Amino acid sequence: MPHTRRQLIRTGLQATLLGTGAVLLQPATRAGAAVVTADLVVYGATPAGLAAAIQYRRSGGTAVVVEPGTHVGGMTTAGLGATDTGNTAAIGGLSHEFYRRVYAKYNGTPVTATSPARFTFEPHVAAAVFADLLTEAVVTVHLGQRLAAVAKAGNRITELSTQDGQVYRGLVYVDATYEGDLMAQAGVATTVGREGNAVYGETLNGVQLRDKHQFTRPVDPYVTPGVPGSGLLPGVAPGTLAPNGTGDGRIQAYNFRMCLTRAADRVPFPRPAGYDAGRYALLLRYIEAGYTGPFFNTVGVGGGKTDSNNDGAFSTDDIGMNTAYPTASYAARDTVVAEHRTYQQGLMWFLANDPRVPATVRDATAAWGLAPDEFGATGHWPPMLYVREARRMVSAYVMTEHNCRGTTTVADSVGLASYTMDSHNCQRLVVGGVAKNEGDVQVGVPGPYQVSYRSIVPLEAQCANLLVPVCLSASHIAYGSIRMEPVFMVLGQSAAVAARLAVSTGAPVQRVDVTTLQGLLRDLGQRIDVGGGSEVVMDSRGGGGSGAGTVTRAGTWLSSTSIAGYYGSDYEHDGNTAKGVNRLRYTPVVPAAGAWTVQLRWTAHANRAGNVPVDVVHAGGVSTFSVDQRVNGGQWVALGTFQFTAGSAGSVLIRTEQTDGYVIADAARFVRT
């Protein structure tokens, strides 16, 4: 008999609210109870894990999700609402469906194959979307189930047991954790830290002293300025900087992605237990040297809220304090998480309250606070630390910088990635007598690239029935590009399709027919072919993501949400002024030459212009249209189909000359025909 929603909303530990009050959890059975069995056992309720279970259930099999913590949805529901998309044309399948459902949730519209996608969202909205997907697929999630042991027969996992004695048995397993605990206990080869550049012939791995999120003024790192013997200020590590490209065991910094608001009912930043203002002595010196910010960033996600991240040399990243985390025990990890929470809450308290901080900085910080309608169970603080990198599998194929740059391709693609090769700082130390951060890398990729199936399965001799879509086989710097939530969902779905094939044929996951797998993935809308993207969507406020293209402006464009039907988190308008001066151009990165239909989106109102000139620059020249923005709002309006060359030679320009009302710039869409 199918589970009811009520049967899916209890847990043996605590209830974790998803969205508007629904929770999709199963009581955690205790030692001595019946063993939980399913075709597919997923460890980790991250987006990858949820996508794997949902896909497997949709295919007719049975699946269960086992989550070591008490939070469902990973970072997507824990504050990372400004999605790191890369090129949105590379996001397909269930992952793209998730973002279309987010749009539908905000706009109250049905979800179709051509629905718009929204990549910025409030945490509770993302949680509600996952709740819908889990309910529809009848997926059970067991919370508070920390892994204790893995049993194997030969090279196959036969069961996993958790610390409370519960046992889960399946035919195939997916490790969807951010830490890679299941694969490690199953005897799969793993690595932690940065390889030297020489290992895979890379240029961006290992030690990297660069200028991003770096001190822009000299700051003395010693307790007594100028006296090395007096010791180092908190946050500065001892040691000598190794040459660029040198490998080590360090990993990029973690933080909490805060959901902030300026609303009157905002929750003031808490003063954490164990607060020590001395931890921020280096920051105070930086401020005294003339630094005025930013100290954190605030990217709007809707509802007057933000996804706030690290920004600057001394910010929310607790640099160097996570080194032990990847391979630590659960208890030791809890200590690391608590350390990061104390540091970041203390930082916000310091910036908002310490009298030594300039009043302008204090006032600007105190104008923000925690969103009162998010994360109520954890005091409105994010429930999960952003583990950007932990263990990585070492398998038959290791994704490297060469894949990211497109100089190496694979024939067994099961998904695309496209984000910048991105690593946060890994350490802070003394260089030339001043404090320096080391490890931050931000280097773009030329376009979407393929992720190898071999990189998400272990060596067969090590484990024949396990797939690893999160802690996949990749070098440190390649992982920095792949490690984005949309890609994790893509790979989670692809892992589930492969698992279904393995179960149906009785084959090890390493021996499923890749051609058959790829055909099934294409049928599901998964995008696995470079140059095969079927659409490029560009939001005027960045919803298209870096890699989708660029939005450039002349004059002044203002953000608004006053008229419904917009794509993403808002739309822009010209203020009905500076006619002929205000212009906005969408320049997409077209993944393949050919015929593309160009569509434009706006919000309609009687005060809009009825004669907006729009130029489409294409391979055949420039075609000009006059658009009436008083009608057809909140939908994609086709301007025509044109030939485009691959790359960024084409564009769509919205002009304002002699327009008779407000001119709107919301989003542009390029659909391959």
Automatic annotation (TrEMBL):
<dbReference type="GO" id="GO:0051539">
    <property type="term" value="F:4 iron, 4 sulfur cluster binding"/>
</dbReference>
<keyword id="KW-0479">Metal-binding</keyword>
<keyword id="KW-0004">4Fe-4S</keyword>
<keyword id="KW-0411">Iron-sulfur</keyword>
<dbReference type="InterPro" id="IPR006311">
    <property type="entry name" value="TAT_signal"/>
</dbReference>
<keyword id="KW-0560">Oxidoreductase</keyword>
<keyword id="KW-0408">Iron</keyword>
<dbReference type="InterPro" id="IPR039650">
    <property type="entry name" value="HdrA-like"/>
</dbReference>
<dbReference type="InterPro" id="IPR033803">
    <property type="entry name" value="CBD-like_Golvesin-Xly"/>
</dbReference>
<dbReference type="GO" id="GO:0016491">
    <property type="term" value="F:oxidoreductase activity"/>
</dbReference>
<protein>
    <submittedName>
        <fullName>FAD-dependent oxidoreductase</fullName>
    </submittedName>
</protein>
<dbReference type="Pfam" id="PF12831">
    <property type="entry name" value="FAD_oxidored"/>
</dbReference>
<feature type="domain" description="Golvesin/Xly CBD-like">
    <location>
        <begin position="548"/>
        <end position="672"/>
    </location>
</feature>
<dbReference type="GO" id="GO:0046872">
    <property type="term" value="F:metal ion binding"/>
</dbReference>
<dbReference type="InterPro" id="IPR036188">
    <property type="entry name" value="FAD/NAD-bd_sf"/>
</dbReference>
<dbReference type="Pfam" id="PF25275">
    <property type="entry name" value="Golvesin_C"/>
</dbReference>
